[in-house]
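Quick review question:
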């Protein structure tokens, strides 16, 4: 029988770190959450509400915004970029608007981008840049979900360097940045997605020392017989891409539906919020946070 990733313990470690940083800051950081009301998904509403509860429990400030139109959404982001009382901005994707989500991500100031999805922040990740300044005191922000996977693996002593990793997701929030993070740490990474042929998908799963799956569909599942004996498995999906009981017979360690990676993601959002607050204080005098509106 395989072990279970204790995501709850990993999350608590980072929540405690973030909470412990509050006394070192000149003011309590404020997170602005933006939920696009016309196309709000139930899962996004639940996720937003959990983040607001986390903020209250940890002692952070949080405000919720629900723009009713695309023009209101764009204008709101511009205003929050210029609002000195806001330390971080979190937009709940997908928006499915006339502007591609990838372009909308670049409207958020890179200094307030708690999800690390701005092109500038993703560029730092490509270059494996950890700090924004020469003195190495101001940390770069990277996507929280991808970072949660890496930190969970590291906290459980799963070897990354030299491992073959298969990621079943190619999104901007999970698959793309996670692949970069793991490659930066010495892993060989292959990403599969909805265009991957089933035979190729099976081969990639069978080779994986580390398997990460995040397919947002209840109709998608991985045959547990494909799992490499001794593999580490992280299922990021809300619906569940793997039958855990069957997969336990082959995996060494695996996530569980009652101890999910999402809580680590939420904890790391507050770590990123701390980074944003410090970056604004250190760098804003030398940088102009511009608004397109």
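Suggested answer, residue by residue:
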């Amino acid at each position: 029988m395989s072990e279970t990733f204790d995501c709850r313990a990993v999350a608590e470690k980072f929540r405690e770190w973030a909470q412990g940083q509050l006394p070192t800051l000149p003011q309590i950081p404020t997170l602005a959450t933006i939920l696009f009301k016309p196309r709000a998904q139930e899962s996004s509403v639940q996720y937003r509400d959990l983040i607001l509860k986390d903020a209250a429990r940890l002692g952070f400030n949080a405000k919720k915004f629900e723009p009713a139109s695309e023009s209101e959404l764009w204008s709101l982001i511009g205003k929050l970029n210029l609002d000195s009382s806001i330390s971080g901005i979190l937009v709940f994707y997908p928006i499915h608007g006339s502007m591609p989500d990838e372009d909308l991500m670049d409207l958020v100031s890179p200094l307030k981008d708690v999800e690390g999805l701005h092109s500038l922040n993703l560029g730092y990740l490509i270059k494996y840049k950890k700090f924004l300044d020469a003195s190495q005191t101001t940390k770069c922000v990277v996507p929280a979900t991808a970072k949660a996977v890496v930190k969970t693996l590291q906290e459980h002593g799963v070897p990354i360097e030299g491992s073959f990793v298969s990621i079943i997701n190619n999104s901007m929030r999970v698959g793309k940045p996670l692949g970069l993070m793991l490659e930066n740490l010495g892993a060989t990474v292959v990403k599969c997605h909805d265009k991957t042929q089933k035979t190729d998908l099976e081969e990639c799963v069978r080779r994986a020392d580390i398997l990460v799956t995040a397919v947002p569909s209840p109709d998608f599942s991985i045959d547990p017989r494909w799992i490499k004996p001794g593999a580490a498995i992280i299922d990021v999906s809300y619906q569940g891409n793997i039958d855990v009981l069957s997969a336990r017979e082959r995996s060494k360690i695996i996530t569980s539906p009652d101890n999910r990676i999402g809580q680590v993601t939420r904890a790391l959002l507050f770590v990123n919020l701390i980074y944003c607050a410090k970056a604004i204080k250190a760098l804003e005098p030398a940088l102009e946070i511009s608004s397109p509106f």
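Why it works: The radius of gyration is 19 Å. Residues 286-293 have pLDDT under 50 and may be disordered.
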